[in-house]
Design brief:
Layout: H1 23-29, H2 37-48, H3 52-74, H4 84-93, H5 99-111, H6 114-130, H7 141-148, H8 157-168, H9 171-174, E1 176-182, E2 186-191, H10 192-208, H11 212-239, H12 259-276, H13 292-327, H14 330-334, H15 338-347, H16 351-385, H17 403-419, H18 423-454, H19 466-486, H20 495-504, H21 506-517, H22 545-563
Antiparallel strand pairs: 1-2
Helix pairs in contact: 1-11, 1-13, 2-12, 2-13, 3-12, 3-13, 3-18, 3-19, 4-5, 4-18, 5-16, 5-18, 6-10, 6-16, 6-17, 7-8, 10-16, 10-17, 11-13, 11-15, 11-16, 12-18, 12-19, 15-16, 16-17, 18-19, 18-20, 18-22, 19-22
Amino acid sequence: MAATYEPATGADSGNTLHRAIDWRGAFWVASGVPALVLFSIGGIAGTAGKLAFVVWTVSMIMGFLQSFTYAEIAGLFPNKSGGASVYGATAWLRYSKLIAPLSVWCNWFAWSPVLSLGCAIAAGYILNAVAPIPAFTEQSPEVIAWLADPANAGKVAADAITAVTAAHTPAIQSFNALSVAVPGLGTLNFNSSFFIGAVLMLIVFAIQHRGILGTANAQKYIGLLVIIPMLIVGIVPLINGQFHASNVAGPYLPGTGDNVGWTLFLGAMFIAAWSTYAFETAICYTREFRNPRTDTFKAIFYSGLLCLLLYILVPFTFQGVLGVDGMKDPGIVAGTGVADAMANMVASGNAFIKEVFVALMILALVLAIMTAMAGSSRTLYQGSVDGWLPRYLSHTNAHGAPTRAMWTDLVFNLFLLAIASDSGGYFFILAVSNVGYIIFNFLNLNAGWMHRVDSGHLDRPYRAPTWLIGLNTVLAFVNALFMGAGAKVWGYSNALLVGFIFAALIIPVFAFRHYVQDKGQFPKGALEDLGLTGQDLGERKAGILPYLALLGGLAVVLVANWYFQMPPA
């Protein structure tokens, strides 16, 4: 049975998503994904040591292989948006009403924080550009004068540099209107970074308010301005003598190769997945493709090729030039020193090139933010249309933009932005959101074989090799291992627990929508792409196997979390 869709050549009538782009449009909307490598390149180097470039390479290859499962199941749903979590959730629906919305929810809270994390880094760049913190040395007149003051007798140069730097730091850099401690989550800081980040979010919202075609057109030009410099940074140091092979040579495993060393490595694999798997967002727009039958596979495949190139090349070159110690620099870890490093790799000491890369870095972050808002808002939208999330999220404006879902994203991320103002909070948000991402990944890689069993009669515009569907099922459990072992590495030991608690919040949300708003019924047409009508969820041909997969995945997470340990504090 072949899936059907409206092969619209222009915008749909009425307030719904518009069939306005082809695979190239989705490619450009997803072009913000390569910039995610810059979010955690320093943190992974600090965790994995010399294995950092290997972590990025292996993780990216895994993400590319997994995308073929997502490409197949996406082809089954030409009339849905929202990405792989939506398409995979339908496979679980007939086995449990709660598992399907869990997949959608976890994918959303994995993707949505890109807005706050990207804005936090971009705000740091803007602050440093308009009000830089001056640098002082032992020979600076201000330092010498401070040490000569009798009131500072007995102090050393380090004390003087700290005091003088604090005295000369622009007020906007230290401004903080309010700080609020939140037990279990950290501190909310309503500082300069928060307000600048909020303005950036509103700008991105305004661009996306015009709908998917306007978003794709805007991101095409921004994407070119970002991708080309990333390629230059990845290639030029290999030929200008700045790359040092010793920086990528062994010994590799962090620590002494013991339990702790493996924990750190698995922690790096865990956090890298948040970036390297993310190009699956290219299939969030199936409902907006003019011809989803051909555009869906092309969108994710070519986005994957771009990421395969940049996620392997850029970390390898970064590590070869800077070495592990250089990549542990606080500026690299926080993200605000990446532009300086990139400029020095291309043209060391050139002030103009530095300013250019600062501007390009801000553009890269804006690109990633736009990609995240476009994808995560459509996940919320489709979750609402299919009866899993509150009804108000199913609204679109006249341009076909899911504006209420976009507003929800924005408000949620203003809260996260207040947490992400320091590096500890930054990586805590990253770790918690990635717990959601791995849960989604596990459910959807298993959805590949479940759709084969339960909906094998349906026509598939793209059919992945059966061996690859099987391999990706194994990788689902490998990712569960990464999460169980690695979530504890990132700043807070309770990241895994907080991630599970946040995932569980879908239970009251779904219960309200399904049992209160919809009286236990799913919306008409929610499963029409599978040939199911009314409240027919289809036959459970897979029997007990999906439940065994869930139990197996949970067992892997819990055993890995128990076995792999961090060093004593």
